Amino acid sequence: MIALFDSGYGGLTVLKSFLKVLPKYDYLYLGDSARVPYGPRSPETIQKFSEEGIQFFIKEKVPLVIVACNTISAVALRYLQKKYSDQIKILGVVRPLAEYAAKNSAKKRIGIAGTRATIASGAYKTEIQKLDPACEVIGQACPLLVPLIEENWHHKPETRMILRKYLRSLKTHNIDTLILGCTHYPMLQKEFQKIMGARVHVPNPGDIVAASFEDYLQRHPEIEKKLTKKGTQKFLTTGDVDRFEEFSTIFLEGTKINVQKIAL
After folding, report:
1. Whether residue 135 lies in the annotated active site
2. Which of 69, 188, 200, 202 is catalytic?
């Protein structure tokens, strides 16, 4: 079984890509929606909350976790990997997206849109410049987007107006690639692309992460052998079950799911 862990619903955009690319595997999704969003919280709190999630997966004897949350990946992933490396394999989303950006940006001018915590961590800049020091990385925190998306306001004109204001500075930096550094943001991908214009590439982050993970499994058969393959999905939340099921039909484009509530 492959576990996906997110602060709420956003990781469902990653799961959607995984189900398209790697449908034969069993998946366990946990959204800590009772405490969403993680983005405005302190690094210490993000680390504490994410550690509780990893401890849950260890109890469930899950062999591998995809941290389908940019905030956790940027702020807490290294800590989690170091502490729990002998108990569970933990992968994040920042590295695959950084690799894609460094490889595909022709002008080497890359924008990152994310939560306050993700941008403040500098994780994307660090990872991208490890791969290509010539790349310039410009971050833009977009703190209002997650709450708006989770209130199902992503199609409202007010949200588009706010997004235009956030992206104004990125447009002035003449970037050619914009990474959506939050798993909620694919819900606004068309709006991001429209505002940035045809000269800026705004890829789907879930598809990039899924393709990277497929390659990872091919390179690590010893891990792939541990994963069950019955094509099942199980969904857990720490928050409201009805609300999670409602939002899942939006994030998974109409797919209806059953959700179980747990406590961390």
Report:
1. no
2. 69
> 256 burial class (0-12, 13-18, 19+ CB within 10 angstroms)?
exposed
Catalytic site residue from 28, 62, 175, 182? 182
> What is the value of pTM for the model shown?
0.94
Q: What is the 3-state secondary structure (H, E, C) of 210-251?
A: HHHHHHHHHHCHHHHCCCCCCCCEEEEECCCHHHHHHHHHHH
In this predicted structure, what is the pLDDT of residue 253?
Answer: 75
- Using alpha carbons, select from 44, 71, 102, 263 the residue that is nearest to residue 184: 71
Which residues of the chain are under the pLDDT cut of 70?
254
Q: Answer yes or no: are the C-beta atoms of 52 and 84 closer than 8 Å.
A: no
Whether 69 is a known active-site residue: answer yes
Q: Which pLDDT does position 254 carry in this prediction?
A: 66
What six digits make up the tokens of 132? 């290509």
Instruction: Of 84, 61, 91, give the one whose Cα is nearest residue 219.
Output: 91
Task: Look at residue 3 and give its three-state secondary structure.
Answer: strand
Maximum distance among all Cα pairs of the chain, rounded to whole angstroms: 49
pLDDT of amino acid 36? 86
CA atoms within 13 A on the CB side of 178: 33
